[in-house]
Amino acid sequence: MKRLAALFAVLDGTTKTSAKLSALTAHFRAAPEADILWTVALLSGRRPRRAVTTTELRTWAAEAAGLPDWLFEESYAVVGDLAETIALVLPPPSATAASAGLAETMASLSDLAHQPPEARKAAILAAWATMPADERFLFNKLITGGFRMGVAQGLMTRALAEATGQDAAAVAHRLMGDWTPVAITLADLLAPTAGGGSRPYPFALASGLEAAPDSLGDPADWRAEWKWDGIRGQIVARPGAFAVWSRGEELITDRFPEFAPLARALPPGTVLDGEILAWGEGAAPLPFAALQRRIGRKSVPRKVLAEAPARFLAYDLMEADGRDIRAVPFAERRDRLEALVAGLPPGVPIAVSPLVALTGWETLARTREAARDRGAEGLMLKRAASPYFTGRRRGDWWKWKLDPYTVDAVMIYAQAGHGRRAALYTDFTFAIRAGNDLLPFAKAYSGLTDAEFAEVTRWVKAHTLERFGPVRRVVPELVFELAFEGIQESPRHKSGIALRFPRILRWRRDKTVAEIDTLDSLRALLPPRAER
């Protein structure tokens, strides 16, 4: 843990990419192999099942520190991070012991999952008693599963590639898929897999278009297609392997049984990138809410399968006949994708995401305005000559989304944030007018500057009407403009509606609570019932 603590100190103490890259590369060159595997796993989002509950940790830490529960909770509210709070309140170590490595620590935590509460408590207290504060903090992070180092996965991949003398793109590919650090060696993890198995490729990601589209140059150099609102995924069909992967590297094959016929229909050695959508009888996809009913389920009921059948709209062809063709220009990959899908048997749940005519930027802008009528969020713009790159690379792929919906609402509840914003009220509940009443309908916690959050915090403290634990009910006076991507009916909410991705657009200091929007004005944005 000492080595990991030293790495964390460097990464946490700088914002320079070069310094982080250097520290990670040095760590990968010097650390034991088992620790390297765990570091890579943690930095790429792979975490073991939590062995100890946060309630147990809070109780044990308060006891060890000799604090009443209320004082520990007040401390937690100020610090905003449980791992850091525990590290700060615990007494100094009562003994010293040799620092365990990361892999050894993770193995110990894994063993605790099968122990009774008394044994788990004894082990955690013993570990705390011999660790300095910096190692305690990281130890607590590992227990709670909230392990982050402020390092993008792409940077970690570059560092590992430099440390092992391999190509960064190849390393990024080999780190994809389903693997665990306790069941693989570093050599096997980084070795090319014969036939690729079911391993997906790293996704290419688009950046938001910030300037006018005509800044991109000649329209003939670009291709346009609809930006769909579903689940980004890859279908991998190789000899002896068929898999459906989400962008978060989650294996979701079993959740979409409709795609099983593609295992036989697709030519062996095919990997497709595309969007998973719920699609009914019409020409447009069903709203994301229909697909959302299937997300997170290990087993999808027949009723849901019938009401929200899935379709795969393919964007790109990354592997054909077992050969990686990501370096081939997009226009050529697209032609090969269309030919491949056209040759599939009728009835399979796959289609190519249609191209949108691009004869000029002004004409395309008018076409974009009809995106919502097609169930899309806007347009994607891809350079015809672009390769299929890894991660987010500005210049070749752009997303040109529609402007979001907006609504003016009043804040009625406020709650403190976490981490560096633990002393600020940043999480708000908003209401709109329903007749003569104020009806809560949305929560949001992003969109203001730090200075604005500080100003709102001072106002909240001076205008609190009631307290409910960490939540304060406030005078309904501050009006904010919220942005959101979609709206749907929801019987689970008192308002009867739910917003998609609500966030604060701006503080409307010029408006009073009498001028906020109404439930009727929001319901007018709902799609026609036949489309819901």
From TrEMBL:
Domain ATP-dependent DNA ligase family profile: 303-434
Pfam families in the record: DNA_ligase_A_C, DNA_ligase_A_M, DNA_ligase_A_N
Reactions catalysed according to its record: ATP + (deoxyribonucleotide)n-3'-hydroxyl + 5'-phospho-(deoxyribonucleotide)m = (deoxyribonucleotide)n+m + AMP + diphosphate
GO biological process: cell division; DNA recombination; DNA repair; DNA replication
EC code: 6.5.1.1
Superkingdom of origin organism: Bacteria
A GO molecular-function annotation: DNA ligase (ATP) activity
Keywords: ATP-binding, Cell cycle, Cell division, DNA damage, DNA recombination, DNA repair, DNA replication, Ligase, Magnesium, Metal-binding, Nucleotide-binding
The protein's name in its UniProt record: DNA ligase (ATP)
Organism name: Aliigemmobacter aestuarii
Source species taxonomy: Bacteria, Pseudomonadati, Pseudomonadota, Alphaproteobacteria, Rhodobacterales
